[in-house]
Amino acid sequence: MKTAAATPARRVLEQACSTVGLDSDGAEPLRLAENQIWRLPGQRVIVRISQAGQSAAATREVRVARWLAQENVAAVRLIDVEQPVEVGGRPATFWVELPPPEHGSVEDVAQLLAQLHSLPTPDIEMGYLDPFVRVGERLQAATTIRDDDREWLHGLHHDLAAAWAERPTGLPDRAVHGDAWPGNFVRTADGVLMMDLERFSVGPPEWDLVSTAVRAKTTGAVSTREYDQFCAVYGYDVTAWEGYPVLARARELRMVTYAAQHAASNEEWTSRAQYRIDCLRGRSGPRPWSWQGIL
Q1: Per-residue pLDDT tens for 44-79?
Q2: Which of 47, 91, 142, 286 could connect to 260 by a Cys-Cys bridge, CB 3.0–4.6 Å?
Q3: In this structure, is residue 289 part of a structural domain?
């Protein structure tokens, strides 16, 4: 059954595929969310359609994918066409379809991050890391949350942005993935690789490490044993760094605003988003909390 989101996305898909000589007949929607993911059966191609205004990010993602291929880093690969393609202001990129993937382990994430962070910063334009990208837009779209909660989250955003600017010195800046959780570091029949490269940038490697640390210390999704293994494989425990609380709270804010945004379109997620807000506001006891997934 088609969703309301699928109709305009399919028109974009058809035009983008036509531009690069691909056949979109029978295309299957795999995910229709902030980014829309389509599969072209029989062609081993995945098409990713981003929101309007994300052309610069899509161009950066293409640059990054080509750099990772040159460096032999295990990651999703582009197909050999000129890209990204923009249709109606929405950029589309084209990728080699993976064998059926499953989430990687924390050790998989640590191993690939250690390889990535060992590379010299590439001579390509990636921009500097913004840990608060789209947070403001997500809050604006979060129509189900109370005004006082929205105001408090805006205040937290402001305070954390100031703290980020004054964060303590840490590891040397490197190319960072930007959204390094096991859903983006997947295991397939061909091995472990990283995907969803849209948040790649130059920045502190600690930002990539904080994703797993927050899943251990904030949400309880990663056990103490798993987190110890993560640190052992990578060779560093980011929670021992004095700047950890700032980056951890920035990651928590991202997770809360993501849930709040999507709760506006799915009633099932309203209580989950509110619980995350309640946790940050001190209404649900100390960390770790148990946060259910969104999408």
Answers
A1: 999 999 989 889 989 999 999 999 999 999 999 999
A2: 142
A3: no
pTM of full prediction above 0.85: yes
Q: Which DSSP category does 128 fall into? A: B
Residue 156: inside a domain: yes
Domain's final residue, options 56, 72, 97: 97
Consecutive H or E run containing 5: none
- Compute the distance between CA of residue 60 and CA of residue 65 in angstroms, rounded to an integer: 9
| In 133-188, alpha helices (H) | 135-141, 147-165
Structural domain count, the chain: 2
**CB-CB contact of 190 with 99 (8 Å):** yes
Axis crossing angle, helix 244-263 with helix 206-217, rounded to the nearest 10 = 70
Domain that holds residue 108: 103-280
Q: Is residue 14 part of a domain?
A: yes
Tell me the pLDDT tens digit for each residue of 147-191: 999 999 999 999 999 999 999 999 999 999 999 999 899 999 989
Give yes or no: residues 35 and 108 share one domain.
Answer: no
Three-state SS for 31?
strand
Please tell me the number of Cα atoms within 13 Å of 268 on its side-chain side: 4
* Range list of H helices, the chain: 6-20, 55-70, 106-117, 135-141, 147-165, 206-217, 224-234, 244-263, 270-280
- Whether residue 136 sits in one domain with residue 261: yes
